[in-house]
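ok so dumb question maybe but i'm new to this and my supervisor (M.) told me to 'just get the structure for Glyoxalase' and walked off. so i did the thing. is this what she meant?? sequence i used:
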Amino acid sequence: MIGNLQCVVLDCAEPLPLARFYQALLGGTVNKRDRRWDLSDEWVTLHTASGQVLAFQGVEDHRPPRWPESDHPQQFHLDVGVEDLDRAHQQVLASGATLLDDGGGTRGWRIYADPAGHPFCLVLERPRPRNP
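this is what came out, is it supposed to look like this??
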């Protein structure tokens, strides 16, 4: 092993509003003090409830991805597991997401864009079998 993942960094035009969007989606703390980096208007972090960290970096002239076009590639995407796909769908739309693909209405996933245009998926979590 060479190193440990510290965070996933998303380029965007407005870091703080995008961090707040992902806070509504994933929980956690925006701009929690962390010895690994300094916080600024151009560098905002989200320490999620699960312990993972997302960072949002302000980029001048940011060009949002356009799913599924390759001339504006995805740059990254997140899969977010949910227990109730319909309820989560309503919540992300209310938080500012845009539906890109409903998965045909019968699949266990849907694709959205966050307010800065980055795609992410809501994926229905299947109940885990219980050990007898």
